[in-house]
Structures are given as structure tokens and as C-alpha cells.
Amino acid sequence: MSASVQPKAAEGRFFEDFRLGQTIRHATPRTLTAGDATLYLALTGGRFAPQSAETFARAIGYPASPIDDLLAFHVVFGKTVSDVSLNAVANLGYADCRFSKPVFPGDTLSAVSQVIGLRENTNRQSGVVYVRSQGFNQRGETVIDYVRWVMVRKREVSAPAPEAVVPKLPEAVAVASLGAACPPIDRAAFDEELSGSPYRFEDYSAGERIDHVDGVTVEEAEHQTATRLYQNAAKVHFNQFSEGQGRFGRRLIYGGHVISLARALSFNGLANAFHIAAINGGRHVAPLFAGDTVFAWSEILETAALPHRDD
Amino acid sequence: MSASVQPKAAEGRFFEDFRLGQTIRHATPRTLTAGDATLYLALTGGRFAPQSAETFARAIGYPASPIDDLLAFHVVFGKTVSDVSLNAVANLGYADCRFSKPVFPGDTLSAVSQVIGLRENTNRQSGVVYVRSQGFNQRGETVIDYVRWVMVRKREVSAPAPEAVVPKLPEAVAVASLGAACPPIDRAAFDEELSGSPYRFEDYSAGERIDHVDGVTVEEAEHQTATRLYQNAAKVHFNQFSEGQGRFGRRLIYGGHVISLARALSFNGLANAFHIAAINGGRHVAPLFAGDTVFAWSEILETAALPHRDD
Amino acid sequence: MSASVQPKAAEGRFFEDFRLGQTIRHATPRTLTAGDATLYLALTGGRFAPQSAETFARAIGYPASPIDDLLAFHVVFGKTVSDVSLNAVANLGYADCRFSKPVFPGDTLSAVSQVIGLRENTNRQSGVVYVRSQGFNQRGETVIDYVRWVMVRKREVSAPAPEAVVPKLPEAVAVASLGAACPPIDRAAFDEELSGSPYRFEDYSAGERIDHVDGVTVEEAEHQTATRLYQNAAKVHFNQFSEGQGRFGRRLIYGGHVISLARALSFNGLANAFHIAAINGGRHVAPLFAGDTVFAWSEILETAALPHRDD
Question: Measured in whole angstroms, how far is the alpha carbon of residue B136 from the centre of its chain?
């Protein structure tokens, strides 16, 4: 490095760079197209009918085939990485995630985050940052919002820390606040042979467990291509040279992509669960590496009908 | 697995689940877009001019760039897998395959199969299932139809078998029934520099053999991405954990994708053979694995002009 | 190979097949779509705002999101390979490359090359071929033009060589000839938070060096898919069977794709450098193989404002 190197290349925020209440508008708005829908399908294996076929989507009440909910989530999430988690030691969790508008090809997503909590760790080397992130479409409508918290390194151990504030998060998203991302569905037009399963909402009950049977082995080229599709530039996913010297000796697969693979596997058993209304909480309990095989099972914890809707 | 596991996740039909004359409407209709055309091109290496350029396609008489015939085939085939061959021991063959309507971006394909033959094997552990599968567009027009036969395991060896019925298949598709998927071509507008070859129909003669020179090495990430693009969920292509304990110790590459790679290689020597009218028969004579290199050669067995057409 | 093998499969031109002044119209015109933009983004990691978001592009003055300049370059370049460099020993350099019209989804690119120099090597086994290649859109407008020179094998060492002609190439593209591919930009509408950097033209000065920090490891499946996307059929990139016996024992990554990866990395530090007006010269100084990690740095050699423009 010569002395003339300028800091124009961002190194990302460290713990002491965040301030409670701070609002960050993230870079690179993104227009999602039919090309994104195709590539996401080919990288994850999705087979849900409304996302796969214009005819099916329109028959049940959508104006067009919607973009997969998790693709929209990953695109919004990806924008936040450079500003929030470039120096993250760990992604600790997600909560209170709502999908509040459907996303269609042609929509442009952008994202804003607000710092809602900060707590330095006792070793003073890092701290936990809580942000609420919102994804917007080109009309300024919120399409997704969620809270996540990450452990972020400090640039300098001696830097003073703000008073600890830990936000109170709901254990589950209120059912009454859901459903806005899914138009009223014409149940009679919902063709169960085409959708791949005769099982509907009332066929699932609390305590039921579904083994989705299939497994999928992930390759480096696949998760890297997916993570770039999401414009998520976290270096742990891409750089074998540096990761080879790091904690795992390997590139880490973006945890959100693993959720997408599990979601695609869940088609076999939950084929009619074509829309995600909310995610109450999520954690990445173990890292996944290329060559590993992902399996999925689902447990129905509770069922809840949307109020004011009978579809 | 707990006792509450429900059979909502399909395990696929076994030999004794098929009945002669049975009609199966397959799940997940699929709208093909420009995104699918791009990804298929990038995964196979296609360079045929009408499929690559709107301008070329329109100049010779198409209303738009058609979707590659084999992409449409794979998408139709992919839908049949969950219902027909999830428990297949082997894909034995294809025959009597006709392409009867061109497919364009925006078209939605769906598929129906009819069981036209059943024959239990003498060991009673499996049997051969013959199906005629048809692919339809959103107007209900048949775009592709073909027969395939697969060897399918029995769930229980003792299950009674139906009387053996083996359909009589034509050795070759009748030329008179072909051509409907290709509009009349304006030969004068067919630019041989842009298409990549000066050789036309009358330049090829029976007995001629063409070595297509090039070879392409296939990676796991490539065939997995392609097979998901086709929404073909056969587990042998994706799950190294289970296949590692299986017959080959490896994931098997979907044979149809190998045909697509060979077809793309055939551009070098058959650049003007831009449309497949029919496939008389096909067999996968040996498995292909990641790391293998595909080469292709063609032998002209016979030439036949389409009746009533001079283009 | 039987005796009836016909030479319909092209083996590519050897040095003695080129003639000074010769014009070659290349095969396979190509319509670029939103699908190409997506796949290119996912294979390279691009995050420049105008190419990512319709809304951003329109706000600053584009009629739509432009296709990435380097994607257009690779597609034009790819067409020239079968005719110019199939028997190349080495790609020696590029110069005088101008981007003179923006390319948008829906545009169809074709390419023509003219031989502007020939010089046999003293060992008589090969020679250097200089071509000026031009890429056109469907309206016949030049979108890209550049010179490249390649070392091409002779079919027969004894073949006579033409008189040596080496074209004089400019050291740098004249600034006055640039800018036509970029509409006048509305600086006030250029949102620096959304673009990802507050640094504009006037913030960069000669001598400044920017380390783009990040690195990306390239997989075989990724560069093969990208190179097929560009319809570049050079066998060194795809055929492990033959390359395994060759100079490097490995498939070689297309150098243009490496430039695209470096360009995408340069976003971190040059986020507002969203358009490439010209490439003064380029060389591939060392081969890159799968498993290698690409890093990038930029040195500002000189800055020059476009005449007649204040945006």
C-alpha cells in the first residue's frame, strides 16, 4: 500500500460508529425482473405455482406472478450489509419480520435501517447492534420490514460505548397485522393438481411434523452466484484467500440462502404454502459450507387464520 | 422422525400405483421468459441465430425469438418426474417425440401424462411404465408430445401386477406430421454469415458424419442449476449425501441436460439446424458425472424434406 | 473418425488465412434482455446504481437501465472468437476501445472485424493478427469499437507470409471523441446515498491509488457460465480433457471476465464511476485459474473532463 491510498473504499462501520436512533439509507436500489425470478428459481429449486406461472397467479387473484418473498427479503437484506454488518463477528438473529406488499417484476427495491439498540460486550472488543430495516418499492410503500441484531467489532477497544439499550421485540408477529402482501385468493380457482398438493390450511394442525424428504448439496459456485444476485457483498462468502486463513478455513454460505433452499425443499409437503406472511424469528444455528447437503423439516407450531378473510 | 410425521410429503408412485389408461395432470405450470432463455443459453452454450437474436428470428418469419426446443422439452419433462419417475431405477428410453408448436417468452407450459403400458419384471421387484406425456401452452395447444418408459420399483414385491401391455411405438416419427412448430422460413432472408454456416439442408447427405470438434466439461453447480431451471426434482441429481451411499457414489447428471450440451456443440457443423422437429428415439447409454467432458458427433442417417414446403 | 468426416465443423482461421483489409461479419447476433443483465450481475457482483435500478437510471437522464458496458463488450468480443482467435496462442492486447452508444435491454448486437495488421513471427510458426472490431446495434449504430491483436498459429510453417504491416495505435483514446454512450447526467438528481459513495469526478486526482479491499474467488462453473453467456466458444475455457494435456493443465479463465470481476470490486471506492467511456489499452499479464482469488486496485493516472459537458 503506498502512502497515497485514500479511504474512498469503505471499510464498513465499527461498533463505535453506530448511534442510537441513527437512520441509514442504503446504497444500490435494485429493479427486480423476470430474469431475477428465473435465476432465483434455478439456484434454489422453487416450485410454488403462483411464482412459477403467470396463468396460475392471475387465476387466484394476483395481477401477475409475484417475486418470491425470500428473494425480495435477500435483496433488501443485501443492501444493509455494507452499512451494518461488514465488520460483523456474527449475525445473531432476526425477528418481527413482515411482508406487507407483494413484489412484482419491474418493481425497484431500496432499503433504510434505523439503529434501535446498542450494547457493548463485557470484553469491550465488540458490541451488539440492533437495527430495524425496511424495504420499499418505487412508490415508497414498505414491502418488508424486520429487526436483526449483529455482533460488530470495535475499531478500538478503548472507544467509549453508549449506554446499553436493548429493544423489546415481540415473540411473534401479530396475526392481525398480516396478509397485506397477499391479495384475496379465489379458493375455487386454486387448482390443487397444478399446485402439487391437496392439502390446505385446515389440513395442518399444531404439533404436526413434516419431513420434506429431499436434500440438496450446495456448491461454491451456486451460493456465490446467489449471494451476488442479492448484492450482498459480505466478504466471508466470496474470498477463499482470506477465509482460508480465518476461523473456518472456508467460505461461509450466506444463511439466508440456506433458508431459501430449505423453503424450496418444503414444497414437498407444503406445496400450497406459497406465500410467507411473516417470520417470527430466525437464527443461524450452525455454519454451512460448500459440499454440505441441506435437508428440511417443518413443525406446525400453531395455526392462525387471518382476520377479516376467509380465503 | 416422531410418530406424528404425516405423509404430506410425496414419496412418488411405485409400480403398483400405476394403472393402464390413467391420466396424470402434473404440478407446477411454468411461464418461460427471456430470463429462462438467457440462463439456458449460459448453461448450455447455444449459439443458434433465431434463438439468440430477435432480429434474425423476425427476418426469417418467426414472430419473436423462440424458446430453444430442448428447454421446452426439459421443462415439460421436469413436471412429469415427481409423478412418474421419482422411484425410477432407470430411464429406459424415449420415442415418438414431436415438437408441434413453437414456444415463445411469455408462454406458460403445463403437462399431462397417460399410462400407455405396464409390464412387471420377472424378478417382481420392479416394472416398466410407459407414458405418453404432452406439454401444453396457455391456450391448451400441444407444443410437445413424446413417449418414455422407465423402470420403477415396487413398494411391495408381493403386490399383484396388472396384465402386461407393451405399446407399439413407431421406429420414426412420420415426416408428414412434422413442421408445425416452425413457421415457413424466408430462405432469402436467412443470412448465412450471421447464422454461422453456409451449409443448408441440401448440403447434408445420408452417411455423412460430422465431428463437432469441441468438448465441454460439466461442473456440479452447472447441471444442478440447469436441472432446477427445468424444475426436475429427481433426487439423484442433487443429493450427494444419499447418492454418495448409492450405486455410483456420485450425483448423476440429468441425461436431458447432456443432450442439450451435445446439441449446443453441434452448432459447429450444423449451425443452420436451428429447430428440432422431432426425436425418433433416445437412450442414455452411460451415466455422466461432474468433471466429465462431453463431446458430440452427428451422423446423418437420412434426409427428408417436409411435404408441402419448399423452405 | 471415419473417412467420410466432412469439414463442416469449423477449425478456425490460421495465420495464413488472414489478409490485410479483409472484413469478417461474425456469426450469431444477440438480443440482450433483462435476463442477461441479471445473470451478468449475479456472475460478477456489479452494484453500480444506474445498471441496477430503473428508477435511478431514469432520474439521472437515461431512458432505461443500461446494459453494463463490459457485458456489451464481452458479447461483441465473443462473436469475434470463432473467426479470429480460435487458433490463437495468446491474446496480446487491446487498445483504442470506445463505447459510443448505450445498450439497453432489447437491443440486438452484431459484430464485424477488419484485419488492419499482420506480422509473421521470426520462427515462422505463428504470426500476429491485428483486427479492429466493431459492435453494432439493430439500427446499425456502432456501440463499441476496439483494436485487439492476437498471436495465431500457422497451419503450415512453410506457408508464405504477407509483408508485415503493424498499425499505429493511439496511446490513449482522444477525450473529445468520448461520452456519446452516456446521456447528459442530471447531477442534482444523482443521489449519492443510493449510489453508494459521496465521491465525484472532482474528488479524484492523478496519482491517487485506491485499494478496493475485497477479493473474490472464482469457480469453474462461474467462469464457464459467464463465458457461455458471452457466446465466446474458445475451447481453452471449457474443455478440461484437452486443457489437462495442455500448457497449464487447467482450463483458462477468459481474461475479459477477470476484468469484469475487477470492475465489480472497484465499486468499493469508485461507486460513482458507473460508465466506462473508453479503454486505452489492456493486457492479460498472467493467466487466472479456478480457485484463484481476484483482488483489484485502481490508480488514477490522469483526469479529464469531457468537453462541452458540465455533468
Answer: 15
